[in-house]
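pipeline/complex-builder :: batch 7 item 3
reading input block
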Amino acid sequence: DIQMTQSPSTLSASVGDRVTITCRASQSINSWLAWYQQKPGRAPKLLIYKASSLESGVPSRFSGSGSGTEFTLTISSLQPDDFATYYCQQYNSYPWTFGQGTKVEIK
Amino acid sequence: EVQLLESGGGLVQPGGSLRLSCAVSGFTLSSYAMSWVRQAPGKGLEWVSTISGSGGSTYYADSVKGRFTISRDNSKNTLYLQMNSLRVEDTAVYYCAKSDGYNSGALEYWGQGTLVTVSS
């Protein structure tokens, strides 16, 4: 199985900060990586697919990059609505796997 | 507008069974892969199962293989998850989700989730 490791697990940041979350795969997943945002009590929301494609309706301050085994999610200027938990997920091969999540907290 | 609505969750004893349903609207079910993803209380997301658009291919996490069965009725616009031999560790919110492709793909739409509690 492909293991997905996110870092950091928790991130404290202020409104306006540039935030970067890293996701590493235990083997190459090409660009078959998605990023999701989840708020407490809510379903996850797709932000990025195929490593760097922005889902329709998602603000342009979100961006994704990487291929192979190392990926990043960047929020260029953190907004109050962005405080949430973020997950990466590989869909290159079954079983699909998620990272453990990164909680973005208010500093 | 794409909508996914899960139902069928509840309290069940260990060893029992439940069938979850996911009624969809706003798209042609047979054109997309569909999945179940779960989240135990206070924990992260765990992929459970995926079925292809035709229903001809199914995939399962090792933790549920042999106990859970994913299926779909495209004529009823409904996805199912039959869960047998339930264990305490199956307790979670179960989400159905639509992929952006026929056989696979990122999970672009999610339902609101249904809670399954396995306890004596």
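note: Chain B touches chain A through 24 residues (CB under 8 Å).
queue -> next item
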